[in-house]
Amino acid sequence: MNAPEAPQFTPHWLALREDADADARATGLLGPLRDHLAAAGAPRRDGRLVVRDLGCGTGSQARWLAGRLPGPQHWILHDRDPALLALAAAGTARLTAHGTAVTAETREGDLTDLRAADLADTSLVTASALLDLLTAEEVDALAAACTGAGRPALLTLSVTGSVALHPADPLDTAVAAAFDAHQRRRTGGRRLLGPDAVAAAAEAFERLGATVLHLPSPWRLGPDRAALAEEWLRGWVGAACEQEPGLAPRADAYLRRRLDACAAGALRVTVGHGDLLALPPAAPGGVR
Fold it and tell me: How many Cα atoms within 13 Å fall on the side-chain side of residue 263?
């Protein structure tokens, strides 16, 4: 089977998933976040909240979150891909928060080297679909930066390894297990956390004294999101076969069955994600 690679970082894939992401994000974390920002007297730049979006992609997190936070705001968009950064900046330039324009700047480069001192003027650190792409050491460093600076972090849509397809198929379990192993793979000398990311991040922040709240944020894909379900299926099965080549002889027919059911409006998929809000200790020691 020549399975396609998962289209995680293309503008097409990011646009396709944006509405599902928006519906999935856990709005129950926003109240505690807004309360914290108000009570803590969050740092501001020229009267604006400063939000750092790590691995911003095309800026979907800003498009979802800006109007749900008190304005005015300034967003610092971090990504390694200059093309995605350009799209994110253009999209953010059209945003308003409570009638006030949202401004933005971009930072190209490695987001894993942020330290507490870099967050001195930051009100909030946020990211979407990022934690599962990091290593345990990188998550520890992110937690240390945020708690060391006394800044909250809202980290959304990390995969949890939970996938449910209806109707069920005998090969579902094997494909899911191989995909999870692929998410935890070693690449470029880095061991990715994959579905262990939410638990690892919660532990890292709590170890440093933060209060951690987390809620599920699953995708629910049915006939109304058939295009996304189709792309997700191709990537899911493709990654599973990359990890376990022995699946390939059966996976070709499996994928055809699943795609046929999707096209007929007969397939429903729930893809588990988790959202995490980490609030720094009540009396942070300041920027270190």
Answer: 6
